[in-house]
Amino acid sequence: MMEQVKPKKHLGQHFLKDLQIAARIASLLSGHGGYRKVLEIGAGMGVLTQFLASSAAYQLHIAEIDPDSIAYLQKMSYVPAERLHHVDFLDMHLDEIAKGEPLALIGNLPYNISSQIFFKLLENRHFISEMVCMIQKEVAMRIAAKPGGKEYGILSVLLQAFYDIQYAFTVHEHVFQPPPKVKSAVITLRRNAVEKLSCNEAQFFTVVKTAFNQRRKTLRNALKPLGIPVAIAGHPLLAKRAEQLGVAEFVALTQMLQ
User: Helix crossing, 114-123 with 137-144: angle to 10°?
Assistant: First the structure.
């Protein structure tokens, strides 16, 4: 029987108290990429954890920084002690959990470090085949956004280069304790077939970030700090703004700037 617990807040996190939504989030794990290992980020008082731990399909690991939550999770014995990691997720060496196998991430992410978590996902994209997460609705819309709108930005491009992203559903404030001041949303990120971009990937990241740092300017002006070769100064891509380019166009632009 699933246990209703009274969650608490720490580290910028609002804890989910609705068991139906927790079950719905857990059900979004698809096994994409053939993973068996799942790492929950910030389990808190185990509202989502209990659904993950009840599945025989996955080997569940937990990353939790709060000592009170660790004590509670130890008491509940959701996972063996060696799979309960008392650590800041951002400091983890995820390859030590994956050990050469695909890995999935899941969790209700703290709002204040969600962007850092996504950049860590990108750093480990060669073995993280899926991520299911609840984040601030505004951030979810940015990540899932298509070119042409104001929501489309740096994370949209960088994540969509390597992951297929779906906005799953919106989560209202009243299902959290304490209630946040904004709505949340659940998204899924599933690794696409792109093993490597057809350009220098470090340069690609730099081009995308530089382009959006001055998103109101045309790329011809926004990318001046990177040095635009005279030979491509008249290229039509440079007459556009960053939000108008898809992943493939940013790859092409990076190739021209190399």
Answer: 30
